[in-house]
Amino acid sequence: MFLGEFTHSLDDKGRLTLPAKFREVLAGGVVVTKAIDACLTVYPRSVWEPFAERIASLPVKQRNVRRHLVQNATDSIPDRQGRVLIPQVLRDYAALDGEAVIIGLYDRLEVWNPDRLTETTAQVDSELVGEQLNEFGI
Fold first, then answer.
1. What are residue 66's phi and psi, to 5 degrees?
2. How, if at all, do strands 109-112 and 40-44 pair?
3. pLDDT by residue (tens digit) across 73-123?
4. pTM of the model as a whole
């Protein structure tokens, strides 16, 4: 189970160090791909495989969703320091240059540009508060 928020840096070669507390679970391999938001998702291989099967079974009209998630996906096994290479196309998509924020989402991780995460979180927080106040008639 992945929980929490961690800040790590990408090195000069584009490698991202995964949080130490998750390395044992991720040692069998990971798949990194684009998320729907402008960030990346890191799946343990064991989670990716059934997810990929569901993606493959999407109707033809959903082919753009398949492309978005699979076209630039990359799989790797973390090295001894828990690092995985993030290809340039994925770094560009998520605007990762230097620092990255890794957040746990129970069965997967997301990797964010710190500024984008702050903007997204502020927007979500505002929407949630607005919905909750609306429910109470305020």
1. -60, -45
2. antiparallel
3. 999 999 999 999 999 999 999 999 999 999 999 999 999 999 999 998 887
4. 0.85
Count of C-beta atoms within a 10 Å radius of residue 95: 14
Say if CB 78 and CB 64 are below 8 A apart: no
What DSSP string describes 3-45? -SEEEEEB-TTSEEEPPGGGHHHHTT-EEEEE-SSSSEEEEEH
Taking the CA atoms of residue 72, residue 96, residue 8 and residue 114 in that order, the dihedral angle to the nearest 10 degrees is: -120
List domains and CATH numbers for the chain: 5-113 (3.40.1550.20)
Cβ neighbours around 29 below 10 Å, total: 15
Is-contact 10 98, C-beta < 8 A? Answer: yes
